[in-house]
Structures are given as C-alpha cells and as structure tokens.
Amino acid sequence: MSAPAIGFTFRPERPPEDLAAAARAVEAAGFDELWLWEDCFLAGGFSASAVALAVTERLRIGLGIVPTPVRNVAFTAMEIAGLERMFPGRFLPGVGHGVAEWMTQVGAKPASQLTLLEEYVTALRALLRGEEVTVDGRYVKLAAVRLDHPPAQAPPISTGVRGPKSLAVSGRVADGTILDGMSTPAYIESALAQIGATRPHRITVYAWSTIGADGPAARDAWREPVAARLAAGDPQAEALAVPEELRASDRIPDEAIAAATAAGTPEECRAAVRALGELGATAVVLVPPSGVDADPAEYGRALGLV
Questions:
Q1: Which residue(s) pair with 63 in the sheet?
Q2: Among 14, 88, 96, 232, which residue carries the largest CB count within 10 Å?
Q3: What are the pLDDT digits (tens) for 5-32?
Q4: pLDDT tens, position by position, 88-105
Q5: Which of 154, 155, 152, 136 is nearest to 144 (CA)?
Q6: How many Å apart are CA 168 and CA 174, to the nearest integer?
Q7: Angle at 277 between CA 27 and CA 255, to 5 degrees
Q8: Model confidence over 160-177: pLDDT tens digits?
Q9: What residues have CB less than 8 Å from 112, skipping those under 6 apart?
Q10: How distant, in Å, are the alpha carbons of 220, 285, 293 from that of 288?
Q11: Cβ proximity of 101 and 54 under 8 Å
Q12: Distance from C-alpha of 27 to C-alpha of 305, rounded to nearest angstrom
C-alpha cells in the first residue's frame, strides 16, 4: 500500500484574510494538500477554495465540506466545474449533511438527510460528467439541466459523514469519504466496512494533531475535545471504548487520547500517520486545535516533509 498524501488545515475560525499567506506557508512546508471547510457562520467554502488555489502552484485544495441543504445542486456543480477548469486536478470537493443545529437555525434541515445526500451526490456527479440531468426526487428536482462549461475531467466528489447509514450512502454514490477528526483505528475499520465501496474510493482522514517534545503533554490539548465527543455519544468516540468512570477530561487514559489523535512527539505523529495509511487512508489531514496559530513549517519538519 502506498503512503498516504499528507494534508494540513486552515480552520474557518481564522479570519479569511489570513488564508492566502497560510496557503503559501502550507505549500512551502511540503504538504500535498490543504483542507478547508464551511462552518456557520464563518466563511464561504468556494470563495476560500478559489483563493487558496490561486495563490499556490501545486497544492491540492480540499473542501470538506459544504452542506447540501443550503446549496442547490446545479449551482454547486457550477462552482466545482469552474474551479476544476481553472485549476485542473487540484480541487477536491466534499459535501455533507451539515450540522443539524445550524441547518435548523437557517431553516434548511431536511426531513431525511440520507435521501437528500443520495439524490444530491448522484445528480452532482452526473452534472460534472457533462450530462443533461432531469430528476424529480424528494429534494433534488432538475429539468433538463446541463452545465455549459463542464470540466474536462470531473473531480472526485467526497462526502463528509459519520454514521453507518450515511457511510453506506457514501459508498454507493460518492467517489470518496471524509472521516472527521478523532477517527480511531477501530472506527476507521468499521467505517470502511460500512462504506463497502466496490469501485475506487478515496478515504480522507482528518487527524487531530499537536506536536511536542513531551508526547503526553502534546496530547493534553485534545482532552477536552475527546471528552466532549464521548459525552455526546459520537460514534467515533464510542469506538475508544472508554469506561464511563474514566470519561472526564482529566481521567481519560493517555493511550485513549493517542488512539484518537495523531498527537505527540514527532516520532509518534509520524507513526500515527503511517498507521492511518496502513488502515486504508488515501490522505491524512492534520488538524491543529481550535484557537491555536499552528505553524505548518513546524509540522512539516516534524513529519520530514522538507
């Protein structure tokens, strides 16, 4: 199995005017990919992707994800097609359900997220292949829609999903799946089985990461996020199998934090990335903690990218 591509993230909490310099820094640090995502109510995913593509030369830019409930599929196809034509082979778009609370807040949460996702991805891929699409689905309704400027080669469409039913939809209709931060080995193995793809399927794994000379100290940054995911009953967190009496942030065993992250010493981080590749990750995307101005050069040196 080939080594995974290595990516870094620009968190949407950061001001959008910082993106251009950050993208250049990630490219200079030797990373293969830079990943963005669209959270409410921070910055638009397609505009950010366009900036990152324009200011870099070889870096692939991933957008994982934009929420399907708030974007008409024909207009999403137009955005993706335009970026693919301007920057061939460098854009990696992803779509998903969106955070249910936010979708409710903006009046866009569908009654069936699964039905919407399946209809949406199926139509989106067909539009990007240059096909004329007519569909009268529960949510996606198109009447003889065809892109005037389809890409020469449609980029792979990934979905960012977590639960078993959503993973199965991704395996049926998408070209790839984005597994969010805190993807433990046990969760990844389970997710791959649930995806059950029968054709080439890209697996992008977001890996929570901090690097330091003291491994346990570097992992401490993730105690609160791991505890929050455990409290929420998140399927990725449940794969850690942490006993109830050890789920407080100050009691979670260090080995559980290590299993949930790619954090620690440079050697531990490199080993975690290798392990994710061996499990089937096509790309491993390092995600620093929120509110931390992480230096991609430091990560690049620790991983031996430059």
A1: 36, 93
A2: 96
A3: 999 999 999 999 999 999 999 999 999 9
A4: 999 999 999 999 999 999
A5: 136
A6: 10
A7: 105
A8: 999 999 999 999 999 999
A9: 138, 139
A10: 13, 10, 8
A11: no
A12: 10
Amino acid letter, residue 237: A
Q: Using CA atoms, how far apart are residues 184 and 215, in angstroms rounded to an integer? A: 18
Degrees, nearest 5: CA angle 291-234-262: 50
Beta bridge partners of 141: 136
In sequence order, the β-bridge partners of residue 206 are: 285
Q: How far apart are the first and last CA of the chain?
A: 23
| Chain centre to alpha carbon of residue 222 | 18
The verdict on pTM exceeding 0.90 is yes
Question: Is the sign of the CA dihedral 63, 65, 71, 73 positive or negative?
Answer: positive
Does position 57 have pLDDT exceeding 80, yes or no? yes
**Other Cβ atoms within 10 Å of 251 Cβ, number:** 12
* Domains of the chain: residue spans and CATH: 5-302 (3.20.20.30)
Closest C-alpha among 190, 187, 188, 184 to residue 260: 184
Distance of CA 206 to the CA centre of its chain: 6
Q: Per the structure block, which two tokens stand in for 123?
A: 């139509």
Distance CA 196, CA 208 (A): 25
Q: Give the residue ranges of DSSP H helices in 129-203.
A: 164-173, 185-195
Question: Largest alpha-carbon pair distance within the chain?
Answer: 59
Residue 75: asked if its preceding bond is cis (omega within 30°), the reply is no
Cα distance between residue 233 and residue 231, in whole Å: 6
Asked if residue 302 lies in contact with residue 269, where contact means CB atoms within 8 angstroms, the answer is yes
- Here the tokens at position 268 are 């531990």
Helices 266-279 and 185-195, packing angle to 10 deg: 20
